[in-house]
Input
Amino acid sequence: MAAENHNPVRFAVGVEVDALRVRACLYRADQEQLAKFRFSTKWERGPDVVMARIARCVRTVVDEADLQLSQVVAVGVGVSGVVEPGTGTVLRLLQPGWSGYPLQAKLVADLGLPVIVGNAGMMAARAAQAIDLPGETGRVLAVFQGPGITGGLLEQGKPVGDPELPFLPLTHLPLDPNGPLCACGQRGCLDSLAGGVAILRLLREAMDQGRTTCLAGHDLLGVGDWRKAAKRGDPLALELAQTTARYLGLALAKWLPLWQPLHVLLGGNIWEAAAEIMLPVARDTVLQELGPGSLDQVTFAVSQLGKAAGTVGAACAALESVTVAPSTAA
Output
């Protein structure tokens, strides 16, 4: 969608960097999405290469919308790690070489634009609350299942306590001591059991054991293939949806007594595929762990933003950083 140059429309780019990909979306200030583009992340090549790929993805998505980079007022970038507020320096990330990496400063120098770098889960949580629970001042716990697990805890629309606390240490609390090895070095963490990468591992294991699925014969499987199979009602794909929801329920049973939210928002591309099956499984698992009545004061809902929560949240943060009042319309 080409922009009219005489119209003083503001544009922002939201970028989400996860375990598998760099995904950039270009938005108007009213949050209409104009273009999207993605690259693989290539973590193994090191921080400078990943930074350059983020910058390249931004330039490409702007070009896809027939705009000039100079028409973009700011860029927001969400990463699944601890980021120093203000400077956008990465303090902790489960990839080698990232401790102390000045990602925000590097991107500003490369793009020549205002850039804000923050925690992807918290950016997504703020956007989801604005869309799904507008005006809510109570505690909201938002959890997003993509390639990995991200999210945030909010009160009055703002992070509660340490903004990184909910989803860095606790997504890496072991749920199954005999589970798969996680990038954090432990076994059976939620991240290694319930994210998209985990689903693909379970899918390949089931196919190797001869399980029937419409994906049989596909050599290179991605999360998108699993999502399509789940939407078609493939029994194996739906079984894996229930498995990942059950693990999430076990994690929620640990989190809810600690944080006492009034609302739980669930989203990400995993939930887009099979929300109607996953939601009751996750909720019932919490009830089994915590007992009857434990959820009487807690609402569960699936976010309308789906897999767009990360990029919408990053774009909103970008617009806020340059004092443009963003609308949160989808």
